[in-house]
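question for whoever is on the cluster today: can someone run the full assembly for these? two chains, 686 residues total. i dont have access anymore since they changed the login thing
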Amino acid sequence: MTEPSERLRSELSKALRQGLVEEAKDLTQQALSAGEDPLDLIQNVLVPTLSEVGRQFQAFEIFLPELMAAGDAAQAATHILEAEIVAAGGQSASLGTIVLGTVQNDIHDIGKNIVKTLLSSHGFKVIDIGRDVAPSKFLEAAEREKADIVAMSALMTTTRPATRSTINLFTEAGARLNYKIILGGGCIDQAWANEIGADGYAADAAGAVDLCKKLVQR
Amino acid sequence: MQHSWLPEIVRRSEQGPFMREADYDRALSQRVRQLVKTYSLKFDPQVLVPGDDEMVSRLFQAAVDLFVDLGAYNQSTERRILFSRREILEAVAAAPSKVVLGTGKDAVVEQHRGVESSLPCRMHSGPTGTPCSERYHPLILQSCAQEPLVDCLGHGSISSYMGQAIIPGSPLEILAARTEAASARQAVRKAGRPGMHIEDNAVSLTCAGKMASLDPASGLRPSDGLLIAQMPELRTNYDQLSRVAHLSSVGMHIVDLMTPLIGGLGGGAEGTAIITVASHLLGVICYNASYHFMGHMHLMRSNNTDRMGLWVQAMAGQALASHTPIISVNDLYTVSGLGTTQVLWEVAAGALIGTVCGLNQHGVGATAGNETDHTSGLEARFQAEVAHAALGLKRAEANEIVLACLGRYEHTLATPNLGKPFPELYDTDTLEPGEEWLGVYHQVRDELKTLGLDLDSGWRNAKYDGTF
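^ ran it for u. tokens below:
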């Protein structure tokens, strides 16, 4: 790798860590102009940088605003790189499509939003369908987006049964085996995930990334 | 502000500036970050009970600036509810500084407390954000209500009704809400304190569920209260505001519940302190609250007994105590569970700060509200005793003791000792704590006494103003 290329990669990584959207876009364009491979930039600059940002966030070395800013910068850079890949006739670099939402009657979404940021920055296409999402809306979104994974979040104990109702609807519709369905949130644990037949559970956002990577590799 | 304030809140909710919620998040984060710098707010992990009155004053100003600039976000309309600085400060000035909670001989006056005050704290107890089983919920409530130092009873939440999972918005929620309210009423009756203030019915997630618990004969009465929640950060919606409308119309206490997240949109301790104070302003002007629960918590662990959580309580408490007449109550969440020394050390640190920094007391959300049946009356007794013993302490003195308490549990925050649930620690017939739990209680109590807290006769430190 040439010295200018190393410098550009290093500067792009720094701009992502600092959440500098315009600078990240500019450096991404510069890297492409210098002949860098867009897929390689995603895999070897964006993903490792955001992985480190995610680690720092989990360790409480940085906080949500820094994570959000890094996620915004990474999203802007990814948008440019994806367009370049598609224009060159390549396939999307997405690791997979995830439909993500907070279950019916639960209006808490900060945890979901953190998961969304981390999944997006690790190369997943995330369709965020919001909070207080009815089971049928999860199913509709999964079918419409041809999702690989459906991810449900629930914080309040009294909203936990909605995760079961949602899985039950997928089963009744004959669509259960078309998707991996995973759970997270304050009132969920592995035992509950097992009880209702989910494909996985993650205790935190970093765990959700690892889980989704494992599921799409199978 | 018009005198018909709730219609005005609705009008502003409909006509205020539109903003997507994600954009509000970003705007709030950026503004908080600026304010931390502008007002030179600085978290010092060694000074958890700061005595810097100027920084306290700057914190209050930063919070007012934030609320003036951003306003409250109404999720129902995706619009901001904006207020002028004058409206905010006038509403704060007019907020209640004393309220009567409960009725008859069991009524208590809860009031605004000052920094380093010798006015006793009121003690709110019950399963704080902690789920309970149907079987043990009534016993847990009674164990709290029968504690002589407990003044008010929190409801807690059950997750099933006759063995069936409660579905919010369904008839089960209504039935569970009414059952839970009746359990709380029965608990205070059996404790011989039928007029004790009951502060919420936590099983309900919807407005209808909350309202279903109102029943003067066997449920909640106007002398009780219900929580009106803010969603983090500075968000409300029509479901919450509709609760305000009904409770106001029947003259029932409104309890403002906030859960600012440390490490969340406000960033670290300084930004979260700004949001915590601003959330109280929202609770005053949008909810017309009788009192406020300061429920800030760690984004990952959901406790507020680590260094940042304690500092936020100390700073926000002082800012409210020094610059407003309002009544705020701490809301202790620990990572440790019942039956452990650590949970009591966490409670001691939080209770000390609350007392010295102008708050009343509420606890305990053991296991950060995760484990079922992790509430009993004994930790509330302990919290109240610490609060009594800390009356009149200077902030620097409190800081030393808090740091000593932290030394007993800080190393366990990442891997907490979850202890045992209520039925393993209490005699479920006599409703007295068992030897194991009492042994732990006496062990920590004795150690705290060696740190300089007079837990046996702390009540002697109390100075009353004639209305208490």
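summary bc i know u wont read the tokens: The first strand of chain A starts at residue 97 and ends at 102. DSSP finds nine helices and five strands in chain A.
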